[in-house]
Specification:
Strand content: 5-15%
Structural class: alpha+beta
Largest sheet: 5 strands, mixed
Radius of gyration: 21 Å
CATH class: Mainly Alpha
Number of domains: 1
Order of helices and strands: HEEHEHHHHEHHHHHHHEEEEHHEEEE
Low-confidence stretches: none
CATH topology: Cytochrome p450
CATH superfamily: Cytochrome P450
Oligomer: single chain
Distance between the termini: 30 Å
Helix content: 40-55%
Strand order of the largest sheet: 1-2-8-5-3
Number of helices: 15
């Protein structure tokens, strides 16, 4: 979209679907950063019952909001629409809580996700990745979303949660429908059926796992949830389900999103891909650049707890506030040539949040998975090229490709 066709900013509704058909609307965000860095959208066209919201688009402002949990709460909802993922489900996740409850629940997971703990999983992740890529032997074409990214990330998080391999695909489909709730391909039955049918079915499946763990405890993350001790209390079944869904959603979506966008960027910038072919040690730097340019989640929401001012905007208590990471990660005040993919940049970024209590728990796992996936793909398929038009999930939350067709041999 050209900036000269962006509507009047007073009427602009940043979350309308038509702006997101080809992924995040970077031209819109660039204009907002320059002209109206904290912008009011009067509503959301596809969910008319939703109230308007503020868009925060500059890195420094997002940093400010992220560190002020008293003034900007996560406990009302974490996405701008209240008409999709049921609010009670979101509020049962620690990402949808404020301290002190947030801190107590999040601490349950901390030991399993430290860099040292995650490093022990590297051999298993490499084995999973190799097994998936071995299936491509002899093929001329593939889709990196469905043939590589999805099966790898599903099995990695499935092992963490203690799922059998045959459960990977149905859980992935359920999570994709939940996070891509506005995409008619991923969620063809619509929002009403998602809430009335799909989520209850997910709950039923989860409770069967919970019952099995209660009878036979294991060392997986599902057992951690089942037998959690929080100041002498255990989690309710609803809280266990919320924690389970959070782990499955983060594990399925974040790495899949950034890996496929990384590979697209490398294929669209062959000189950058060649740098990785010649020097695989650049893979970690390339991953950080991809995290900057292609954050897996387009926004998280806060709700103002009091009247406040942010970069000239007068925010009222109760207002929704959206933190747009595809915008902040391309803020020209922070990055030179922000739209250019550069494997040498190795930037700081806000793909995992902007500090504060809600900084992403799974950063070490995401980075390790991405590094392995990129290394293995470039090593095995150095001449890989895009062979068709990539498509995006139509979503203002789950920011990722839906398809990425490639020719494996170039």
């Amino acid at each position: 979209m050209s900036t000269d066709v962006i509507p009047d900013l007073a009427k602009l509704q940043v979350a309308d679907d038509e702006l997101w058909l080809q992924g995040p609307p970077h031209e819109v965000f660039e204009r907002l950063r320059n002209e109206c860095p904290v912008h009011w959208s009067p509503g959301i066209k596809q969910t008319p019952s939703d109230a308007g919201f503020w868009s925060v688009t500059r890195a420094e402002d997002i940093h400010t909001v992220s560190r002020d949990w008293q003034g900007f709460s996560s406990a009302q909802n974490i996405i701008i629409t209240d008409e999709a993922i049921p609010v009670p489900l979101v509020q049962g996740m620690f990402i949808g809580m404020d301290p002190p409850k947030h801190d107590r629940i999040k601490n349950l997971f901390q030991k399993a996700f430290t860099p040292k703990a995650i490093a022990t999983h590297e051999p298993a992740i490499r084995e999973i990745t190799a097994e998936v890529m071995d299936r491509l032997a002899g093929r001329e074409h593939a889709d990196l979303v469905t043939d590589v990214a999805q099966p790898v990330v599903s099995r990695v998080i499935g092992e963490f949660m203690g799922l059998d391999p045959e459960d990977d695909k149905p859980w992935a489909e359920a999570i994709n429908a939940l996070l891509g709730f506005g995409d008619t391909t991923l969620n063809p039955k619509g929002l009403e059926a998602l809430v009335a049918e799909d989520i209850p079915r997910m709950y039923e499946k989860c409770m069967k796992l919970v019952a099995a763990r209660r009878e036979n405890p294991t060392n997986d993350m599902t057992s951690v949830l089942v037998f959690a001790d929080i100041d002498g209390d255990t989690l309710s079944d609803e809280e266990i389900f919320a924690g389970f869904v959070l782990m499955m959603a983060a594990g399925n979506d974040s790495t899949k999103a950034t890996y496929t966008s990384t590979m697209r960027a490398l294929m669209e910038n062959p000189e950058q891909k060649q740098l990785l072919v010649d020097d695989p040690s650049l893979s970690s730097s390339a991953v950080e650049e991809a995290l900057r340019m292609f954050p897996a989640f387009a926004h998280f929401r806060r709700t103002a707890t009091k009247d406040t001012e942010l970069n000239g905007a007068q925010i009222k208590a109760g207002d929704k506030v959206a933190l747009w990471y595809p915008s902040s990660n391309r803020d020209a005040e922070r990055y030179e040539n922000p739209h250019q993919f550069d494997v040498h940049r190795n930037p700081e970024h806000q793909a995992f949040g902007a500090g504060g209590r809600h900084f992403c728990l799974g950063t070490a796992l995401a980075r390790l998975e991405l590094k392995i996936l990129v290394e293995e793909t470039v090593k095995r398929f150095p001449k890989m090229t895009i062979s068709g038009q990539p498509t995006y999930v139509v979503s203002q939350f789950s920011s990722q490709l839906k398809t990425l067709p490639v020719r494996l041999a170039g």
